[in-house]
Amino acid sequence: MSGGEPGALGRDDVAHVAHLARLSLTDEELDRYTGQLAQVLAHAADVAALDLSGVEPTAHPLPVVNVLRPDVPRPGLERAEVLAAAPEVEDDRFKVPRIVGEAP
Amino acid sequence: MSPGGAAALAAAVRSGERSARSVVEEALQNVGATDAEVHAFVHVMGDEALKEADAVDAAVAAGRDPGPLAGVPVALKDNLCVRGVPTTCSSRILEGWRPPYDATVVERLRAAGAVAVGKTNMDEFAMGSSTENSSTGPTRNPADLSRVPGGSSGGSAAAVAAGMAPLALGSDTGGSIRQPAALCGVVGMKPTYGAVSRYGLVAFASSLDQIGPFGATVADAALLYDAVCGHDPCDSTSLSEVPRGSGGLDQGVEGLRVGFCTDLVDGASDDVVRRVREAANALAGAGAKVEEVAVPELRFGLSAYYLIAPAEASSNLARYDGVRYGLRVGAADVTAMNTATRTAGFGDEVKRRIMLGTYALSAGYYDAYYGQAQRVRTVVIEAFARAYAHFDVLLGATTPTTAFPIGERVDDPMAMYASDLFTVCSNLAGHPAVSVPFGTGDDGLPVGVQVLAPALGEELLFRVAAAVETGAP
Question: What are the structural domains, with CATH classification, of chain A?
């Protein structure tokens, strides 16, 4: 992932982004996605090639910034209802598998 | 379903001439009779709907006005949260999830007396143009069951087209309301960015997503838009002042300046272009000043869209990690659990877009792809502004072709993405646009004509759309 040349997407790049996105791909999927993503990026080459050096980027189309509301406490969601949707719960908390390795 | 449309249906319920229960029962019967072959719905809210209908009838009996949509059945795209009702976005990863709150649009519908009758099928997380990327299988086009209904809001479009619900809500990130509306032969409208609250809409690409209406007629779509639009403190991207849409429906187009946008028909099939020209002629015949206009910058919109939308999606969909809701596939540690869950829970197209977006945002490529696409977005907005200095609205095709056969484009992402050629620029600019049915193509399938207006031009948009509808064959 060191180069910055648009359109030069390879199998290793796809494996790397799949890892970043927490997706596991079979070899067959890796081949298929590499071809398809390269095709989409090739189509985007027209955009990548434009000289837009003097143009400001647009992040969203609204003329709105820093939306604030009065800092007044409001009721949140029902805790029991929220926890009921979780795959695993213990003592009113979301339970997940081990996060860090065993102590040495 | 009713000759006078949703407004007449509501009037009959408000006057006591018809009960909301009988209207809703009829809708549920239509779903039962038709949906086995169309598959517009992923979840029918039978009991809830009858209960709400009874509440509307009770209000009428007590002399209270239940609202402008009294007793009118509405279908909801399955990315709109209804408290306690399954909301899956047609994804395995949200199978069985019941939201702990209502979307603001759902609350507003209820306040207007409308009755939600079910959740409609969609491309998974709204990513697609055919409603084939669904964990529950494709929706079929009621006009020809071998064809796609378009997407991603294909279930909502098909529900209205088949008469299973007079009204439906969908969401439009790059054309996902207008494109299926065109392919199914109904009216579908994307409002100005910020005009309708997105609180309770499951996010896909947050700088582009908007909720909007489907109806059998322009008047019905405008009525539904009026019921759901307006500021909402729960959505910080919602605009503070939002004008209603239906005010000018009967005012005609005398003297309005209509730009026939050549770049919004370039690449469409001949029969589709012919229909757009006929629509332009109909508007000219009704007194509008119609001229051709080129806006060549719009041709860069599709590439920019397919960088921006996946980039935002890759970020938004990071929340599906198997921790707080939805699917979990167990594994020894949390990273392996995240990976196993996402690998099993997401379909092919969602994975494709997440990876594309992750790549477009990654170190070394960010500026060449995502940054450049954001600059193109500015170019598109400025190009629209130049056009709107000379024209009140623009006219073009909604889609390059009529409905294509199921299965034709599922393995060819670029062919599928090309369906959005004429719709994405309104999302990039945050402008409103509507698709109006205008006859059929050479294959006998529905054609949609698209009207585009500047930000907050909803009243003008519906007014011109009504004139297009009047001129339709």
Answer: 7-49 (1.10.20.60)
